[in-house]
Amino acid sequence: MYPRLPLLTICLAIINFCTCANILMITMGGTKSHKIPFWELAKGLIPRGHNVTFISAFLPDFHVTGLEEITPVGLVFYVRNFTNWDLVGARMKGEEPVSPLNMVRYATEACDVLLSDPETQDFLDQRRKFDLLILDGAYPECALGFAHHFNAPFMYINTVGFYTGSLSLAGNPVPYAVTPFLSLAYTDNMNLYQRTANTLMNLAANSLHSVMVKWVLQDMLRKHFGDDIPHIYEMSKNVSFILQNGYPSMTYPRPYLPNVAEIACIHCRKAKPLPEDLEDFIRDSGDAGFIYFSMGSSVKAVNMPVYLRQLLMIVFKSLPQRVLWKYESEDDMPDLPSNVKLGRWLPQQDILGHPKLRAFVTHGGLLSMFETVYHGVPIVTLPVFCDHDSNAAKAELDGYALKLDFETLSAEKLVWGIKKIIHDPKYRREVKNRQYLLMDQKETPLQRAVYWTEYVIRHRGAQHLHSPARHLGVIQYYLIDVAVVILSSLILFWYLFKWTLKIFVKNFVSTEVIDKKNIKID
Question: Looking at residues 201-210, what average pLDDT do you find?
């Protein structure tokens, strides 16, 4: 029996070799947070023998063995220039930080820049073979051209958890009555006014998206990939699987089809020891602990208005806690309070997992919200744009966050908010409850994502998971045509009934009356 073991080992090695795949990942997201779930999935796939190539607009921050990263220079500079904005200043004025037209402009211009870049052209000309493409479901339209070019099945990582466009096109039900639009501060419990506004916002966004796709992006893909490329909407309906960046305990329970799996917190991990300089700074805080202030990767603190910076100085100086502040500038602030430490980059998860952390002040980005639940930290949210408002509304509904608005923000309000979540035990109790619900899973989000990725590869696109609902139009899906048939039938039946009754009255009742009159005369 034992002599057969080497042969069995060789067979298993051959099987493992044969199941390894070449995978191409692409994100067109304009902020680095879009890249993080792809990184984590790549780090889960590479040790299993898969070859991963990753195209994005962000240069690698660290080396991942086995990962080939492609960052076309034109796309890198375009995204860097486009996103060098003062989002907070616009929000404080009550303006839309990024208008819908600017979002359309980004989508169309970034696509043209990517596809026109010489590095992208060289990559496409190589005619490499890929077994699977993994695209960013928040903006997959441009990258669908790569799926057509390489003639390979594709799946999404839907990086923006509250974005429903890609889900809807794949046939998933998206009822507006309980699905808040990603930029609105609504929850899944909306009153009549909110449901009306939510429906109108969804319809407007869908109309704008349709115009962008049909009038601009379709011609752009034809220019770069040939006239035979199918329509973008037709290609998007054939998505094999969607890894949804959500989970019921942190986003909302949703009626997903079998080809959707939720992977919120795929990037979350246990805290590691902090660098010595940070640990020394925190150690000196005593029993008061410290507060962490970060606006994430999309909202650069260095671009914020001077007024807000001065306001934050007043707030931080008045607090008994020490403050770690993510601030993207090498310049030292002459008026920086002694209890504040700046950092261009700070290890956020290691900070959130530190036992002396008392509160987290954040913009409400989705990954930050996941991390705060994973590490069990109450938060104050200051939403800025995109999905920040809907993320903050859900966190406040769940009881572990306090939401403040930049339009009405004052030093007194921010101090009150920070002290409220530190000293009111409700916030820490609720975040610990959410943490427990998040952790109570049969597998990690990464294990789930790896399994379904390999499942799609094994079954060559997993067509058997697709729903025919993706091919139905609005009229068919919502049974409007059936309603018209039923209503028309009822109307026809009513008129037939009236006509029959009229004939009956005329021919039988009238005759009977005449006969009675004749009897009386006789």
Answer: 95
Contact 405, 93 (CB under 8 A): no
Residue with tokens 């054939």: 238
Is pLDDT at 11 greater than 80 in this prediction?
A: no
Mean pLDDT of all residues belonging to the chain: 91
Element (H, E) at 18: helix 4-19
Residue with token string 């995109």: 386
Helix (H) or strand (E) holding 147: helix 144-150
CA 398 to each of CA 246, 402, 433: distance values in angstroms, whole numbers, following the listed order: 15, 10, 10
The first and second tokens of residue 502, run together, are 């009229």
Instruction: For 18-74, write each residue's pLDDT tens digit.
Output: 468 999 999 999 899 999 999 999 999 999 999 999 999 999 887 888 899 999 999
Q: In this structure, what token pair is assigned to residue 507?
A: 């021919």
Looking at the domain covering 276-439, what would its CATH class be?
alpha beta
58 close to 35: Cβ distance less than 8 angstroms: yes
Question: Quick check: 51 and 21 in contact, CB under 8 A?
Answer: yes
Q: Where are the domains of the chain?
A: 20-264+444-471, 276-439, 476-505
Name the CATH superfamily for 20-264+444-471.
Glycogen Phosphorylase B; (3.40.50.2000)
The amino acid present at 429, given as its one-letter code, is: R
Helix intervals (H) in 403-470:
411-423, 425-439, 445-458
| Cβ atoms within 10 Å of 74's Cβ, excluding its own | 18
134 touches 23 (CB < 8 A): yes
Q: Quote the CA–CA distance of 376 and 353 in Å, as a whole number.
A: 8
The pTM of the full predicted model, rounded to 2 decimals, is 0.90
C-alpha 207/C-alpha 203 separation (Å) is 6
User: First-to-last CA distance in the chain?
Assistant: 118
Q: What is the mean pLDDT of residues 151-168?
A: 95
SS3 264: coil
